[in-house]
Amino acid sequence: MKIIKLIAFLLCSLAALQVQAEKVSLVVNIWPPYVDSALDDDGLAMKIVKTALKRAGYTPEVRVEKWEKALKGSKKGVYDLAGAIWKTEARQKKLLFSNSYLTNNIVLVTQASSTMEFSSQNDLQGLLVGVLADYEYDEKFMKNPKILKFKANRLTQNLISVQQGKLDVAVADKRLALYELKHFMGNNINDFRFLPKPLSSRKLYVAAPIENALSKKLIAAFNKGLAAIKKDGTYQKILDSYEY
User: Fold this and answer.
1) Structural domains in the chain, sorted by start
2) Rounded to two decimals, what is the model's pTM?
3) Could you read off the pLDDT of 10-29 as tens digits, one per residue?
């Protein structure tokens, strides 16, 4: 009996060590409706990422940091994974990216009464365009000197400026814009119009530091978990559960 209890104890101890070894640090910045502890399951992106990682056998320990600190820490290997990040050539020099798990449609929001149409960036020349600081917008758009861009820290600031006629149009991630309009400008949501053609679309990824020896394994595991939740319908259920 003592031997059986000893074996059971050793097995439990081994299992506990294994669980501990499978924990990974996941850094994010507040970005509703994708990442926000005030939302169900910490937001849409976090729900997908954590579900995929858990399916692959990992337990994510989430750290919330300002974006600049999160990005620098990810590149230096302070964190195992960055949970919601766009891919750029510069970032690929330091980070290994997963398969994409969401698409961010970057759209134009104007006054409902506006007759503005958008088919190419030429239509934005000479207009007052609101953008957000620290966003990696389309490079051609950002470098176009004929598009007058004004930066704000919060999308709500740009939406109010559009509403008041101080800006012609605001550039926004569509889900973020819908979230902000619903939660902070609900009584005025009909004052705005989304132009049908996106300015651009960006893929959202998980990324890991190239220099970390475990990064390839973690990224492969995430990709495997993501494929699994897409195959069994879990992924679509998560998308359907978030309303803006």
Assistant:
1) 23-102+202-241 (3.40.190.10), 126-199 (no CATH)
2) 0.84
3) 344 444 434 444 899 999 99
